[in-house]
TrEMBL record:
SUPFAM superfamilies assigned: NagB/RpiA/CoA transferase-like, Winged helix' DNA-binding domain
PROSITE patterns linked: HTH_DEOR_2
Domain of life the protein comes from: Bacteria
Entry protein name: Putative HTH-type transcriptional regulator, deoR family
Domain HTH deoR-type: 7-62
Keyword terms of this UniProt record: Repressor, Transcription, Transcription regulation
Signal sequence interval, chain numbering: none
Organism: Phaeobacter inhibens
Family annotation (InterPro entries): Carb_Metab_HTH_regulators, DeoR-like_C, DeoR_HTH, NagB/RpiA_transferase-like, WH-like_DNA-bd_sf, WH_DNA-bd_sf
Length: 256
């Protein structure tokens, strides 16, 4: 036990422990520094908000790719994202109104959509708008607002007002974290508000997530898990138990 350690000392310990062991629980941190588990959770929450670690229920894990810059994230698991995105893109039907929020996985979905499919797309992502504009059959509406360089999305009151005037058939929501107990989360407050508004404006909500997103919890909650109708996830990997729990919550899970 190491008592009276400063917050910076605890942060250093957490990062070193995760580098060495890959997992640290709130109970372990509490015991090591003789602090309350609430204090341990606060340490984890602050590091998670900075993208330094990822939070799961009762513990911390090394930072996920979701905390990396957009260009770097787009390259991570690009083959897996393309495979899952192809399954997601096949869910779009002729003439539908489809909402896309931001994220590298949603950009992969946009790139997999057939150029012959005619539908209306509404998005807060300039990259997704550009990708969809390559098809003459897609009406693309880019929501204007304040551009957030971290999420590469437009955010703010103008975006929220515009989304509230929409009734979409389908929403593709990008998530930094999807947990059976906590729900959908993201590191950024304004992004969480935008994603939540898009979910509320849609009849069907589809999430596409690689294994590093399953069981991960970021700082800001988007919505409860039951807001998602369909989750498209990896067939193999370490998220099997979490995916079973997600299915038990009533979410349809398709593996690819």
């Amino acid at each position: 036990m190491q008592a009276t350690a400063s917050p910076d000392e605890r942060r250093s310990f957490i990062l070193k422990a995760l580098q060495e062991t890959g997992r640290l629980t709130t109970a372990q941190l509490s015991s090591h520094f003789d602090i309350s588990e609430d204090s341990a959770r606060r340490d984890f929450r602050e590091l998670s908000a900075e993208g330094m670690i990822q939070r799961v229920h009762g513990a911390a894990l090394p930072a996920t790719s979701a905390s990396q810059p957009f260009k770097s994230r787009y390259k991570v698991s690009s083959g897996t994202k393309a495979r899952l995105a192809k399954l997601a893109a096949a869910r779009i039907r002729e003439g539908q109104v489809v909402l896309f929020d931001g994220g590298t996985t949603n950009l992969a979905v946009a790139n997999q959509i057939s150029k012959t499919l005619a539908f209306s797309a509404i998005t807060s992502s300039p990259q997704i708008a550009t990708a969809l504009s390559e098809s003459r059959n897609v009406e693309v509406i880019l929501l204007g607002g304040v551009f957030d360089p971290r999420s590469q999305m437009t955010v703010g009151s103008a975006v929220l007002d515009a989304v509230q005037r929409v009734r979409a058939d389908v929403c593709f929501t990008g998530v930094h974290g999807l947990d059976a107990e906590i729900g959908l989360t993201t590191p950024y407050y304004d992004e969480a508000l935008t994603k939540a508004a898009m979910i509320a404006a849609s009849n069907v909500v589809i999430a596409v997530a690689t294994n590093d997103k399953i069981g991960f919890c970021a700082a800001h909650k988007i919505s409860e898990l039951d807001s998602v109708d369909l989750l498209i996830a990896e067939r193999s990997g370490s998220a099997h138990t979490q995916l079973e729990e997600i299915e038990h919550c009533g979410v349809e899970v398709v593996l690819g």
